[in-house]
Structures are given as C-alpha cells and as structure tokens.
Amino acid sequence: MAEERPPAVSSHSRAAAGGCTVKECEKMIQRSLRTPMVRFLKEQLEKAGCPLGDNFIKAVNCEDKVSGGYMSGLGIVVCSNHMDLQDDVNQVVTHELIHAYDECRAANLEWSNCAHHACSEIRAGHLSGDCHYKRELLRGYMKIRGHEQECVRRRVMKSLSANPHCSEAAAKDAMEAVWDVCYNDTKPFDRAP
User: Fold this and answer.
1) Nearest Cα residue to 81 out of 9, 8, 21
2) Which of 33, 38, 99, 156 could form a disulfide with 121 if both were Cys (CB 3.0 to 4.6 A apart)?
3) CA distance 121 to 127
4) Which of 1, 25, 5, 29 is nearest to 13 (CA)?
C-alpha cells in the first residue's frame, strides 16, 4: 500500500491478536533483504539512481490494520504487530519496493492522483506475488480461474480506499482506465514473476 501518510504507529510491543515484536520484525527484514526477489529489486533501484539508505525499511507497530506501506521520501514501514511469518515480511517488502521503483522511474508520480496510485498498486499486486493462488486460498478465496486479476483488482480498491483523494467511484474509474497498460508493464522484470 502506497500512501502519503504513514500508518498510525502504536507504542504497544505486540498486537493483541498476534504479530511479532519490532525487534523480531527487524531480524525478518534483514533476512528478507537476502532473498533473490528483494535483492533484484534493490539492484534495479540502484541502477535507476535510487539506492536504498540503511534505514529505508523500518519495522514499526501500527494501529491501522495494514501490513505496511511506502511513503514518498520516508521509505517503507513493515507493521511488526501484523506480521507472523518470514514469508509475510518478504511479501510486504517486495510489494513496497515495487512502489519505490515506480516512484523512482516516474518523473511525475503523484500519490494523490488516483490513476497514478492505481497503476502502482496494479503493478505491485501483479508483480510481487500478492495474488498467487496459494496466498488467495489462505485468505479464503477459492476461485481457480481468473483469480489473479480478480485479486489484484480487489487489493487495488482496498488500497485506494485509504487514499483521501480517491472516492470509491474515482478509484474504480482510475483502475479501469489504467488497467491494461499497468498490468502489462512488468518493469524491472522481463515478464511477470
């Protein structure tokens, strides 16, 4: 989820319903930085002229029911109190790095513009593996055919609903307007992973 404001941060060390501590999440972020997908995205950001600083990805406790977010100029936050597994952290970091890549390569990306935000969400949902059928089954979605695009659309709308500049109608119109171009834009990958 890319947005202009960071998720509300809590001082609690652990979510009541699960999650991990900030310290545990920081260790998982460090492991995530060694995965092939994250290493590839970091390299592509560096090639595009946007190297990640040492504190670009941070573990925090979030009051909002989100996994993490990318904030322009601030970096990525991973909501430790909503993370249970290393795979969850890897997924959040990968998704948010795609937003960082989009912002790096676009001279005029405006997160307040519903079409810009929708495009980056489409790309992040499609390219990060967020909508892999196994993930969807774990979320309770059992559709076999066409699940990936349906999942990306659902998750784009969920993310855009958090953007105060996008009404539900504007979000849907923006997503539909940019869908084909953005879904088929697989940069920095040769094809969708």
Assistant:
1) 21
2) 156
3) 10
4) 25
Q: In Å, what is the CA distance from 173 to each residue of 113, 119, 154? A: 12, 12, 14
Cβ atoms of residues 107 and 46 within 8 Å: no
| C-beta separation of 125 from 155 below 8 A | yes
Rounded Cα gap, residues 169 and 3, in angstroms: 18
Neighbouring CB atoms inside 10 A of 104's CB total 18
Q: pTM to 2 decimals?
A: 0.88
Question: Are 5 and 76 spatial neighbours (Cβ–Cβ below 8 Å)?
Answer: no
- Over residues 160-183, the pLDDT tens digits come to 999 999 999 999 999 999 999 999
Structure tokens at 118: 């929708």
* Exposure string over 29-55, b if 16+ CB within 10 A, otherwise e: beebeebebbeebbebbeeeeeebeee
Q: Which residues pair with 78 in a beta bridge?
A: 59, 68
Is 96 a residue of the active site?
A: yes
> How many residues comprise the chain?
193
In the set 4, 24, 26, 96, the catalytic residue is 96
Q: For residue 47, which amino acid is it?
A: K
